[in-house]
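Troubleshooting log. The previous structure file for this entry was overwritten by mistake, so regenerating from the original sequence record. Sequence copied from the archived sheet and checked twice against the printout by T.R.
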Amino acid sequence: MKRTVGHIATLVLLCCSLTAPLAAQWKEALLPPPYDQGYYLDVYFLPGNQNLGWVCGMNGEIIRTTDGGATWRGSTIPGAFLEYVQFLTPSIGYVSGHAGVFRSDDGGITWRDISPFDPNFEKGWGSYWINQNEGLYFVGGCASGIQAFYRTTDAGQSWTVSYGTEPMSGLSDGIIFRNGSGFAVSSGVLWRTTDFGRSWSIYSRTGSKVWSEELAISGNAMLIPTAGNTCDGNASGIGSLRYSNDAGRSWREYQTGANMFGSFLLDERRGWGVGNDRAVLYTDDAGESWTNRNCGIRGNIDDIFFINDTLGWAVGQGVYRSNFNAAGPKVAIVPADEVIMICKGDSAFVEARSAVDNYSWSDGVKSPGRYLTEPGRYIVSVYDRATCAESKDTIRVALKSTFEPRITSIPKTVCEGDSITLSVDGPINSWLWSNGDQTQSTFVKTSGKYTCVTLDSAGCTATSEITVTVNPRPRPTIQANRSLTICLDDVITLTAPPGFRKYEWNTGETSSSITTDQGGDYVVTVVDDNGCIGTSDTTRVVKLDTRNKANVQFSPGDGGVIIVNDHNVGTLACRTVRIRNISTNEPLVISRPFFVGNVFFSMPQTQFPITIAPGEIGELTLCASALDTGLVEDTLALPDTCSVGKIPVRSKGLPIAFTGSSRCDVGVAALVISAGSSWRLSAPFPVPASTHVTITVKHEQGPSAEVTAVLHDVTGRVVGRSSARSLPKGEIDLTLNVNGLPTGPYSIVVLANGERMGVSQLLITNY
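Regenerated output below.
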């Protein structure tokens, strides 16, 4: 609408709209008798000529107009239930229904029967005519489960037929396009053809198998009305509108609460569905929501047809022409500008005003007042349920400036200590960087997010941002495989961290590690994957003009390992190691040797320091004390003049065996396999046993663990557990009840903190 009316004039207009006489949206046509009593099922107007229209009814009535519905005349095919009408020219047209197919060559005045014979005697319904001679007639499916697609190319003089076999699915309507493809609808099923209707196949399922009388198509949108809850729609008060916006591949359904029979699509988003109980439903959002626009409709409606967006016809209990020019409320947007100019990111507040409080904006907003933030065309509409009249107003939002500032970076990334130049170019009047600079370019040296607020020549501000990456320089550290002090004949390996792209030592070598026998200062420079360069601190290697002095004298067969004699668990075994001082002019002083593990091996500290004269041999005493049976190992570290000598040390823990004789001269034995900190076990007594047997357990420093005994038979099954009694001197008696056990051998397993410590054999004899 033109935006020239001020606020006062707008208010006057609204007041006037409230008092203006109201008219209905649909106006019923005056039909001559007896056609004014008919029940009409289909309506059609000739494309390109809105004055020529035809309507057919359930009692064979066919009425026609040549003046756009101002006047009507009619003819009748007696006893014919007519569901479909279509004209190809002002003279040639067809009707179809239960009674068959009929053709007129005089604009609908007279008709002749051209029906095919159906051997299944099913109910015929709609038809579709591609041209004056070529068409299809859709028959059956509810009774026999056979859908018949009859086709003629000679105006009904002869027919061919193809069949579908979908149970309980009544065929009703179809459409053929110019390229030969097409669709047809039956109860719950959408059919497809690609050869002008010669053959058909099921394309998709639309929902439950209920009566689906019509198929409307526009672009990728499809609309199907349904009625009842059976194949032929017998139940009243049940119906829906099924909508697809992907060419029939998927469907959504809107329940109407009334039998629905007719449908029409204006485009892919706007359409109509009609049915019983004055149902004239309209959608403008592709079937998401529906509004009943039935003002002026007095009864059931079976079909609807639109010549253009506003001129339409609805038929059923009467024939109705749309009356969208009926007086109703008006809506106006304030401010009354045709175009509002905003900057990107800004908003403008507008308000729609009307006497009817049911606002609907084209983008889905329902409130009268709103903020507009995006460029585009916005339409607000109001709908008056009393008159079914609709009013719309439009406003357009445009951007003052389409310029979008962008920060450029030279270079993209840098290394620590370097700088990056950030710039924003374009029609800009001022800059404000997040670091405070107010120039076109700024220089940064640290990582982070930087923003620039610009004011362009159109007066619009915008904020652009960029993330800067400043890569840290690598800081390599040199690792040595030994002390940095080396002697004659020694070498040292210096290693830089792995993962760098390039290495360069001050010696000229380019590997990650170097091995040298020279003293001096060593530095490595590396380059990482980002191209950043880093240099290590200086590592100084000191070379002495001497050699290590200690030379361990191994026994034959030792193989370079110090062997301490095998010994019982919990006991101590020692040996003497001979060490020669190979220096010719300096004594060897051994003051602080140590074991790396320092668990099973020890050295008497009273022997230190040990001083060995040049060329002489000295002795070092080592001891071992195994806590468990088996091999024990450690490493003796022997500091020397230039480095620490490392010599492996080994010993073995042996089980402690106890033997004795019982009062019946039966041999008994106990075996300690885990002494912990020097446990001692007695042999079980008495042996043979008949009611109880006891083992005494002792720890030299007193008990420090939970000790139990478990009795096993020859199969390994546990047959008894001990009770414990503490005795003086750290001893514990573990007593097992063996009363009632069969004669035979048994094993007693002694556990300390759940770990097996010893096993004793026991013989039980029943007298």
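The radius of gyration is 53 Å. Archived copy saved in two places this time.
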